[in-house]
Amino acid sequence: MAKGDGEYIILVNGRVKTYTNWEDLPSSFENIIKFNPTPPPSPHTKEDHDYIETFDKKLHELMDREEE
Does the pTM of the predicted model rise above 0.85? Predict the structure, then answer.
C-alpha cells in the first residue's frame, strides 16, 4: 500500500471518475463524491497514526480544488 491509496470518486467535466490514489487526482474538478483513503493495516505504529491524522487535512485540500 502506498501513501494516498484508497477510493476517490470525483466529478470532472460532468463525468464521474474513480481514482485509486489521491496523487492522481486532477488539479481541479467539480465535486468530490467519495473520499476513502485506505488506512495502514493494524496494529498501527506512531507513524501510521500520524499518517491517518493527515486524512482530514487532505480532504480539505482537495475540497479547495473544487471549482465554483
Answer: yes
Total residue length of the chain? 68
Contact in structure between 31 and 14 (CB atoms under 8 Å): no
Nine cell digits for residue 51: 499518517
Per-residue model confidence as pLDDT tens digits over 1-60? 899 999 999 999 999 999 999 999 999 999 999 999 999 999 999 999 999 999 999 999
Domain that holds residue 25: 5-65
The DSSP-derived string for 14-35 is TEEEEEEEGGGS-S-BSEEEEE
Task: Name the domain count of the chain.
Answer: 1
